[in-house]
Amino acid sequence: MVPAFPCRRRNNFMSDPTPQPSIVSLRNVSKVYRRGMQSLVVLESISFDIVKGEFLALMGPSGSGKSTLLNLIAGIDTVDGGTISVDGIDIATLSESDLARWRSAHVGFIFQFYNLIPVLTAFENVELPLLLTSLSRKERKEHVETALLVVGLADRMEHYPSQLSGGQQQRVAIARAIVTDPTIIVADEPTGDLDRVSAQEILDLLDRLNADSGKTIIMVTHDPRAAEKAHVIRHLDKGELQDVHP
Amino acid sequence: MFILKLLVKNALRHRLRTLLTIMGITIALLSFGLLRTVVTAWYAGVNASSANRLVTRNSISLVFSLPVSYTERIKKVEGIKGISYASWFGGIYINEKNFFPNFAIEPSSYFDQYPEFVLPADQKKAFINDRKGCVAGRRLAERYGWKIGDNITLKGTIYPGNWEFVLRGIYEGADKSTDEGQFFFHWNYLNETLRKTVPRRADQAGVFIISVKNPQVAAETSLAVDALFKNSLAETLTETEKAFQLSFVSMTEAIVIAIQIVSFVVIFIIMAVVANTMAMTARERIGEYAIFKAMGFRSWHIAGIIFGESLCITMAGCILGSALTYPVAWKFGQVMERFFPIFHVDNNTLLLDLLFSLLIGIVAAVFPAWRAINIKIADGLRRIG
Ligand SMILES: Nc1ncnc2c1ncn2[C@@H]1O[C@H](COP(=O)(O)OP(=O)(O)OP(=O)(O)O)[C@@H](O)[C@H]1O
Ligand SMILES: [Mg+2]
């Protein structure tokens, strides 16, 4: 993948005169949870764009709908109104099976609790998403090794999650997210369960992936330190988008 | 390969739980196999009966006998190939514990009606020529260590006194379903003594065994035989050997049915147990399944993982249970030899073990798989942490 941003340009990012190609675009997205007679509006008329190579931080108080929004963009939840298109595809129109196929090709997931499969080694965990591709065993091995090398765990391939620290597990999870070379990486509080040092390592890693490989990253976080790494910070409150802080 | 490894590793995640479940299946299949074998053993006499044979007995009851003079008259009935006769002797060898069926038979014709009792020609000749000769089944001879030429004494119960015999032949069964535990001696030997001691009991036979040329006309032949002795002092009842054997078994039919029901209840119970195990397992892993789905794995992948794990467990139980059925049934058969002369695990039992294991594995996985497939990814992810 060609890096969209060859150098760090955080400060002039939004003031760049040439319009950047937008990779994710949300238009009037709303999400409502219904429970019996009650309906809870979680997201209301959200519209914004994410440009290719952007590192976006979604912030906001607990319950403001950050995870919900992230899930919608990642295609694991469906909108109740509006459209979301990713790389030109309106994902709301995809059937469930097409959506699954789309996710496997275009989305890399990073979760707060790493969510590795405990009975599989680091190598096997990273290999998992590649099982859905047509890659040969040998090719898969190469991809997995590269991904683990990128996150600095080449020497821990045969370790099980229980034999790794939280920070290391999250790095395996990042390797799993990038091994398929997805269009976007979504991360829901990736440092939420880590101590400061490990959290910093994870943020540096995400930053590096964004800067060096031009990965588009959408990260939900509570941590201002984490948000600092982002180009763009968007605040959600009670389901509504606040001002953009570049 | 990857998937198989995942299935096995998943199954071994809760070692104790899985082990106990496998043990449960093993024991269930073992009980099922044994109970089925008991039922088969119960019907061994019925199953071993030949469609070519008829049995004629006193129409009042088996307790009453018939005059042997009937032989000549029956022989003349259309469609009859051969005839012999026998009396239940009910002798005891040393003490009551050593029960085995023993009969006084007409030596020259009896084995012709029972081709499944294989007796070497020289032994048969020796038996016929010795008034005090007797023939025992191979298993019976093995049990008491009898060799040809040995003297064997039976204590009479119906016919008092000690009766001495010389073992002249050991028959073998033509196949596994043949009872190798019977004992035969000369009807004449018994009769001569009776003539001297209780003449009114002499010249009588318990049953006539008739071979017919064509089993299709067995019913007509039976009627023809019985018609011969209609309104005589001792009327006869002729039926196929199968019906004759069934009349013994039918007395205990309720027990057999109960055993059969229990054998299926056992399977049903273990099905519930395995289903519970799988439900627990899947509930714990709902979050993991959500991750799989988020990564793009499809419902059938998830279902495959759950069904695969369930089948891994039930198949392990199946292999152990089926394998253990043989030695356990063998030991059981030895202990229960007195009651079940034929105690063999039917090959169908293995097939049923396999079918039930598959069924248990599938049924147990249906609900967890359904749940895992239907849960929304976002909801599944929310369960983690
Ligand atoms: N399946 C659901 N059914 C009903 N309400 C839901 C469901 N999922 C989420 N919600 C509600 O939607 C709102 C937003 O939830 P969401 O998880 O997106 O918040 P969040 O901003 O990620 O919070 P946090 O920072 O605590 O993770 C909450 O009020 C939550 O209770
Ligand atoms: Mg959240």
TrEMBL record, chain B:
Keywords: Cell membrane, Membrane, Transmembrane, Transmembrane helix. It is a multi-pass membrane protein. The chain crosses the membrane at residues 20-44, 254-279, 300-330, 350-373. Its main location: membrane. It is found in: Cell membrane. The lineage of its organism: Bacteria, Pseudomonadati, Thermodesulfobacteriota, Desulfuromonadia, Geobacterales. Residues 261-376 form the ABC3 transporter permease C-terminal domain. This is ABC transporter permease. The keyword Zinc-finger does not apply. It comes from the Bacteria.
